[in-house]
């Protein structure tokens, strides 16, 4: 074909229609999203022809005389309807909300008020200091545990025949068939504790957890558990000294995990305990310094079948030991060298969760062939590491090569001489796959001559323990030096306590320190005993940045040295899969630039990474109401670092009313009287008084604690006096509203008036008042103002939606919004309408928002008022020429974002206008009445493209079917053997291998969504245009419409002619679409290395290190059927056992 994109004919026969000035279409060179050439898309011609038709129709509609349209839909009548409805609506809402009374009450006390400008830099410094003090107390607790553990080890002599009973977290309180406590399962008192998420715990003593694959009576385990009993009094003392402490624990290098307070541990649905403390980020980061790792995996033909499965699992296990301060790449080799991700050729990439998961998928697809030539692969690995070291890229600390092979290696010594000797700055760890021992000496020689470690991995269950050995080697320099580095982890979700849903979905950071053996006789071996740690919930940390100091739209956030979000109100770590909420795969590697995405130059991110203190101003588009709406704000960002941590803190204040704080004063006596009203509540998430330290205070609500504090009943209570003072003041000013609402409720007699359910108000101090006009059983939306409905109440992250929207409405104007029932099984229809307005106070030409007030009404009540208003007309003494009840008129009331509140067809209520009438919405956009705003979501989850392998092969040959069945039988047999502990000793290996297989199968079955970037439109009414009308030429007919703003609201009246079919116009949808990056752009994004700040310390080598402690042959005993299994698998085609 010879056509291009520069000019497109609008119609199949252009000669029939005269269209002067037809626009030309050019590709947008500035767009990076989905820029496919016209030549590459066969459907582009038809699509652009249709688009041109629509544009021509729009242009032609503006040239038609409007007089004909006015005779069909009288403009003055529509304007009258809008004014009448607006006036009646305003009267109703002001009457029931009492907004004018509340505004007057604040006006009356203006003379006693002060409005102060907020100093953002001073605020962020104060918050930072408070956080430093809190985190310092956690560090002190961890240090005391380290000292106690090292002293206990120094005084303990290893006893191979030690017999010792301890509280096993899985077995405690378990009884056998005779009713006796099982071994290691003595009685263990457990009580529910609010401080620990209401879990049943024992705050007097710790308990010990072991993974299923670790034998609970192994001599190493018994000696370690016995030695660590010395931590129990320290745990208790720490908790008494700092009652804000949460979990404290010791993770041993032998695999046991001592946790305080003691808790009952529950296996997963397969009866397996998969949690291994040595796999956790806090353990690995504390045990080793940052590292650059190149994994070399042998893909030669000899690695087929079971060996390949073990090699893949070994790689996955290594990847699980890496964190965001590490860098990695994987190279596969046989006859030639190839990067398993070609995009990463010649570089190292940050080992964040995204990249690790990406590598795991690629590893799963590896297939064997050819002959393994290791020298080329080693040379490639050394060159990458050398390049990054010289360029000061990557971790700039430890460097290592992991060689995974079945042993047929040669020609490697010249490579070491050229790249690594004599300094041996790159460690080489070797992993011999399979039971063949012929090449063991070669691989051990490689490891021992390059300061590494050699292990043999003959089963899937061997991988975990053997991979862990490299961490012990990397920890030696730090151990010998006795450098107790303090590490703080990135945000993560607690999986230690799978028994608690609340706990498992809580974002934490952990402070951890390594524990060393101080015995002189083992000094050169650098023995790591384990790691101690303590959790800090980020919710508790962010309470030190009180919400009331930040204004309606303000917030505080934290990020790590790598630029990843630690805490941010727009961080969405969970997604819904069916009825379950699950963590997103990349929830803790969301970059600051992906949340504050309008900072295109990354000025804010760079400054915070560099630990600077300063400020930055940016215009932002803030999504509201799950992305259906948007606020346009100018935000001031203030930032500083948090000393002795890898974290930086930011505070955001919106310009305008967000820059001011309102200060009032009243007597305690007067305030207390008005505070004690049954319909008054305060923000349950805000800290008015500290109630989570003293056990006697934990049962108190924030309101009860304030009352005790003010009356002097409990002198030990600590409260935020400024916030308490503001609550008292607001309670006094808003008290008359209760009497006003009560009088209204008593005077409602007419059934037609019973459409308003509840009146409510909220103040900037988190005070909330509400009053019902109907019985609770008649309320349309019972979730409204309930704590579980986070959009309608004050939370740690946000003011209520009705408050935030009202604050941006013009003074005296109400914002209306539909309310929906939340939940996966809720009916998709609106249940109520809220209307709210802001109450402002002005002192010395400074305006601050004091409160917002509003009502919730039934949808039907709003509709009744509207239909009554449209019975009005300008004709005097005669019938109205037109009515919304006429069959040739369609009337809608829509909000400023295009959502329908009122329609003649109830099923359209709540839908977006463009979805119902694409022609009118397209014309409104074209005329400038509405504006389309493009928003981006870099935390989205998208469905994977449908892929049905069988679709291309509807007919399966008998041989293929037989092979598939055989493969299935073999895998089932393999799983059976694993369950019966075919590999290794009975007490450890089978369970872990079973877990590996089960997890892999489960993951593939349920992995329906994947992280992605999306863009979506939001439509916003341009308030400068209050009315418009037009005629749309739809080909065979013309559609007339009139739009008029409804006064003192965010609503618009739209009247259209339904008799004209305008289906030539496609619907205008408010849908998110995945941003598709072409291969080149995608690769550039994956390779790009954003600026980051490296950890302050590095321990790569020590001259006293015993490099000859470099491993040996592992246990090779196995059950006979396992030797036969590869023989059975061997008869299958290689592609079935890649």
From TrEMBL:
It holds the Pfam family VWA_3. Residues 292-474 form the VWFA domain. GO terms for biological process: detection of light stimulus involved in visual perception. CDD domains: vWA_VGCC_like. It is found in: Membrane. It is a single-pass type I membrane protein. The lineage of its organism: Eukaryota, Metazoa, Chordata, Craniata, Vertebrata. InterPro entries: Ca_channel_alpha-2/delta, VDCC_a2/dsu, VWA_N, VWF_A, vWFA_dom_sf. One of its GO terms (molecular function) is metal ion binding. Transmembrane segments: none annotated. This is Calcium voltage-gated channel auxiliary subunit alpha2delta 4. SMART domains: VWA (SM00327). PROSITE patterns: VWFA. Its main location: membrane. Keywords: Calcium, Calcium channel, Calcium transport, Disulfide bond, Glycoprotein, Ion channel, Ion transport, Membrane, Metal-binding, Signal, Transmembrane, Transmembrane helix, Transport, Voltage-gated channel. Belongs to the calcium channel subunit alpha-2/delta family. GO terms for cellular component: voltage-gated calcium channel complex. The keyword ATP-binding does not apply.
